[in-house]
């Protein structure tokens, strides 16, 4: 890669990072290209030059910062039983949400607004939820997960993963309720045990898988 290519990549990354920062703060719809380029210290014409406009920039941002398709594909090809698969999936989603809360906020905003960009978001998030559903079905068939409705269980587990991975939102509710947290363990481990125990796994099954 020559110096020019490196320079272009650096500018592109600044634009993508600025887009993510502003979209998480005020929403993508309310963020202008001018604001993005000012934040990125980039010429306003570069958004059209590199991405073809504001809307394609949104997908470029997701492609850069959402690793879900990659790690979902990796998990899909690993030989794991349903309990192992669930543990790995929860861990990957937890670490992703913790490492980049801005992307999580953007996705939440777009779904709340029922925006036209939901189809694009699903392209980058759906693989992990399809995998979650697969693990739930396989676990029930093998007798290690116990639940009645696949649909309801899927939604409850998905909600637990998303909410349990968002420490900022959790602490906001704790503050509003004026609750003193006195038994704080490892949040990831607690989340895994909470979900798997809710699915009917014993402590021994969780520890041994």
From TrEMBL:
InterPro entries, sorted: Homeodomain-like_sf, HTH-type_TetR-like_transc_reg, HTH_TetR, NicS_C, Tet_transcr_reg_TetR-rel_C_sf
Location of the DNA-binding region in this protein: 32-51
GO molecular function, one term: DNA binding
Name used for this protein in its record: Putative HTH-type transcriptional regulator YttP
Tree of life domain: Bacteria
Species the sequence originates in: Paenibacillus nuruki
Domain HTH tetR-type: 9-69
SUPFAM superfamilies xrefs: Homeodomain-like, Tetracyclin repressor-like, C-terminal domain
Keyword set, alphabetical order: DNA-binding
Pfam families: TetR_C_29, TetR_N
GO BP term, example: regulation of DNA-templated transcription
UniProt keyword Transcription present: no
Keyword Acyltransferase: no
């Amino acid at each position: 890669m020559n110096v020019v290519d490196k320079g272009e990549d650096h500018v592109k990354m600044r634009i993508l990072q600025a887009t993510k920062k502003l979209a998480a703060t005020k929403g993508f719809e309310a963020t202008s290209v001018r604001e993005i380029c000012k934040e990125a210290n980039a010429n306003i014409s570069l958004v059209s030059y590199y991405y073809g406009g504001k809307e394609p920039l949104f997908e470029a941002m997701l492609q850069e910062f959402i690793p879900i398709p990659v790690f979902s594909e990796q998990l899909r090809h690993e030989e794991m039983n349903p309990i192992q698969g669930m543990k790995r999936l929860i861990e990957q989603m937890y670490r992703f949400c913790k490492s980049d809360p801005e992307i999580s906020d953007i996705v939440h905003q777009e779904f709340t607004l029922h925006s036209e960009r939901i189809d694009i978001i699903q392209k980058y998030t759906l693989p992990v939820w399809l995998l979650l559903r697969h693990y739930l079905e396989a676990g029930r068939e093998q007798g290690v997960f116990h639940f009645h409705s696949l649909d309801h269980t899927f939604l409850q587990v998905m909600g637990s993963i998303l909410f349990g991975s968002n420490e900022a939102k959790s602490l906001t509710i704790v503050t509003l309720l004026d609750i003193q947290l006195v038994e704080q363990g490892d949040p990831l481990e607690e989340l895994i045990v909470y979900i798997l125990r809710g699915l009917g796994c014993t402590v021994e099954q969780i520890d041994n898988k």
